[in-house]
């Protein structure tokens, strides 16, 4: 069977790292790329016997592209620490690599959990990410937020899902969204002309809430859908503030 490297990027993920590693324990190599965690992340990872590389964090694309280059094997599965590879997904990947007839990359749908419950709507219902790739045929684009994998050639889609536990608590979620707003503004400053303040601070946030809560059925996720939709609007508003 073709050998596989699993990559997990971390910073202060003591609550996730052990389970994330266990979910890919079947991989031929596991790399943890750590951004100098100050909690027990490294201690817990060392107990699992994985390879740990510490590197200063510049951005998600930069960190993961570096990690890809460190992999020993030609096929790579990339996980965030808050994600889990299920048994069904493991079997599907093993069967795929065992056949040898593969493309250069595969997208995987994520099953997202927010504050203890699966989110089925709220704009998260079609959350596909390219995470299984052939080394040398794929890299992330150079952005700070919502990075995308760019694959040379055709990609496929796996049938089974990754589990994604999006945040530890509401404070963690809000801090992450604030960071995304700042990074998103940095990305946009490189190419966009400055639009009107009214558009940035009123029209776009209002549209984002309408999109997530009504058009993407966030109201069906109960109060969690309202929180997700309102926070999405707040993130767009804050991004506009950073752009002014």
Structure in words:
With 244 residues, this protein is of the alpha/beta class. It is built from seven helices and twelve strands. Strand 9 and strand 10 form a beta hairpin. The radius of gyration is 19 Å and the shape is globular. The model has no long low-confidence stretch (mean pLDDT 95).
Major beta sheet summary = 10 strands, mixed
Any low-confidence stretches, pLDDT <50, length ≥5? none
The coarse silhouette is globular
**Relative strand content:** 15-25%
Distance between the termini: 54 Å
Q: How would you spell out the order of helices and strands?
A: EHEHEHEEHEEEEEEEHHH
Mean pLDDT: 95
Rg, Å, rounded: 19 Å
Category from helices, strands and their pairing: alpha/beta
How many beta-strand segments? 12
Fraction in helix: 40-55%
Number of helices: 7
Which descriptors apply to this entry?
single chain, 244 residues, alpha/beta, ten-stranded mixed beta sheet, two-stranded antiparallel ribbon, 7 helices, 12 strands, 24% strand, globular
Secondary structure blueprint with pairings:
Elements: E1 4-10, H1 17-23, E2 29-34, H2 41-47, E3 51-54, H3 60-70, E4 75-80, E5 83-85, H4 87-99, E6 105-114, E7 117-118, E8 128-134, E9 138-140, E10 149-151, E11 155-157, E12 162-165, H5 170-189, H6 197-215, H7 222-243
Q: How would you summarize what this structure contains?
A:
Helices cover about 40% and strands about 25% of the residues. With about 240 residues, the protein is of the alpha/beta class.
């Amino acid at each position: 069977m073709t050998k596989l490297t699993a990559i997990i990027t971390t910073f202060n993920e003591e609550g996730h790292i052990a389970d994330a590693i266990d979910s890919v324990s079947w991989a031929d190599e596991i790399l943890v790329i750590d951004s100098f965690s100050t909690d027990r992340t490294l201690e817990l990872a060392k107990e699992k016997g994985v390879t740990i590389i510490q590197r200063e964090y510049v951005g998600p694309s930069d960190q993961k592209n570096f990690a890809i280059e460190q992999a020993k094997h030609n096929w790579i599965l990339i996980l965030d620490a808050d994600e889990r590879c299920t048994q069904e997904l493991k079997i599907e990947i093993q069967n795929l690599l065992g056949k040898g007839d593969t493309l250069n990359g595969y997208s995987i749908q994520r099953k997202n959990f927010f504050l203890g419950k699966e989110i089925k709507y709220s704009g998260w219902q079609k959350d596909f990410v390219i995470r299984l790739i052939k080394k040398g045929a794929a890299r992330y684009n150079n952005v700070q937020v919502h990075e995308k994998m760019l694959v040379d050639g055709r990609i496929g889609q796996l049938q089974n899902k990754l589990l994604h536990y999006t945040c530890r608590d509401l404070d963690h979620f809000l801090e992450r969204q604030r960071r995304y707003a700042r990074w998103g503004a940095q990305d946009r400053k490189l190419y966009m002309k400055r639009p009107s303040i009214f558009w940035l601070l009123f029209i776009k946030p209002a549209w984002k809430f309408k999109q997530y809560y009504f058009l993407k059925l966030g109201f069906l996720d109960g109060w969690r859908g309202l929180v997700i939709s309102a926070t999405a609007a707040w993130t767009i508003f804050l991004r506009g503030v950073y752009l002014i």
